[in-house]
């Protein structure tokens, strides 16, 4: 079993997250909007024994991730092969200013329904990954991608059904990928990513090129914060034949099949 605390400590220790929270507090202090001020107050109140559970808070997100990741790894089976499936529907490309009001609940319901059709007897867990797509140094669109890891080998039947349902360019799917997962802790951590980055990432780019992750410009960061406050990591899970228990910020993942 992966020691996620050690694994994440390089980029995501509690100290690093506390510093990130302080930078967010400084930035939000300049935003006079009521919603931003509400998040600011929550972040300032976050302390040991009295956590804020704001969807924006990096410390609360790390605590949640440290609970979630080992359970997810256990459910997927540490010794079984995993397959990562990601896709972006055309409706999940969102212009600046429209992210906060995006109906993620509706999107999640739809994605779960599609997984039921595509891989009915399989376990899949993952979440919603939001990033700001940058092309030619110009911020283009918010991209709301669905990303799941599937446990066990994919049968040819399943593979054909999945690729048929997620045909890129169809009315349902703007882009799609299916890949065996080699670096498991890395991919698991990525599928339950908390932060929203800008990335000069183009799904048409050659597979030997890596996407570049960049910190969001403040005008985008405030919008991302308002979105995350509405949709915290624990409400962005995409689970198929798995339940997460009843307490939103204390996951108790359980296989349902
Ligand atoms: Zn907090």
Relevant terms:
39% helix, 257 residues, two-stranded antiparallel sheet
Describe the secondary-structure layout.
Blueprint (H helix, E strand, L loop, with lengths): L3 H9 L1 H15 L5 H12 L12 H19 L5 E7 L4 E2 L9 H15 L5 E12 L2 E14 L4 H10 L9 E6 L3 H8 L5 E3 L13 E2 L3 H13 L6 E4 L1 E2 L10 E2 L2
Parallel strand pairs: 3-6
Antiparallel strand pairs: 1-4, 1-5, 2-4, 3-4, 3-8, 6-7, 9-10
Zinc ion binds next to α4.
Q: Structural class, from secondary structure content?
A: alpha+beta
Number of strands: 10
Strand content: 15-25%
Number of H- or I-type helical stretches: 8
Unreliable stretches: none
> Averaged pLDDT, please?
89
Radius of gyration, in Å, reads 18 Å
Can you offer a commentary on this structure?
The longest helix has 19 residues, at about 60-75. The chain is globular and about 55 Å long. The chain has helices spanning about 5-10, 15-30, 35-45, 60-75, 105-120, 155-165, 185-190, 220-230, and strands spanning about 80-90, 95, 125-135, 140-150, 175-180, 195-200, 215, 235-240, 240-245, 255. The chain is α+β, with helices and mostly antiparallel strands. Helix 2 packs antiparallel against helix 3 and helix 4 crosses helix 7 (about 185-190). It starts with a helix and ends with a strand. Bound molecules: zinc ion. Zinc ion binds near residues 46 and 54. Zinc ion binds near residues 46, 51, 52, 57 and 60.
């Amino acid at each position: 079993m992966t020691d996620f605390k050690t694994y994440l400590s390089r980029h995501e220790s509690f100290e690093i997250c506390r510093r990130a929270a302080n930078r967010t507090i400084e930035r939000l202090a300049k935003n006079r909007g009521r919603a931003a001020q509400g998040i600011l107050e929550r972040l300032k109140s976050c302390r040991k024994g009295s956590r804020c559970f704001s969807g924006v808070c990096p410390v609360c997100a790390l605590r949640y991730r440290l609970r979630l990741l080992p359970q997810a790894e256990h459910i997927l089976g540490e010794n079984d092969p995993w397959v990562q499936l990601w896709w972006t529907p055309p409706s999940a490309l969102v212009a600046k200013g429209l992210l906060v009001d995006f109906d993620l609940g509706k999107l999640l319901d739809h994605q779960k329904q599609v997984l039921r059709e595509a891989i009915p007897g399989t376990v899949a867990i993952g979440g919603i990954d939001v990033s700001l797509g940058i092309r030619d140094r110009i911020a283009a669109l918010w991209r709301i991608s669905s990303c799941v890891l599937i446990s066990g080998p994919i049968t040819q039947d399943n593979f054909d059904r999945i690729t048929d349902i997620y045909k890129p360019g169809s009315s349902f799917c703007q882009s799609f990928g299916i890949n065996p997962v080699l670096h498991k802790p890395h991919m698991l951590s990525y599928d339950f990513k908390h932060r929203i980055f800008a990335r000069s990432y183009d799904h048409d780019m050659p597979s030997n090129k890596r996407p570049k992750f960049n910190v969001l410009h403040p005008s985008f960061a405030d919008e991302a914060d308002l979105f995350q406050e509405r949709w915290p990591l624990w409400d962005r899970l995409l689970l198929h034949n798995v339940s997460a228990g009843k307490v939103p910020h204390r996951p108790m993942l359980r296989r349902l099949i």
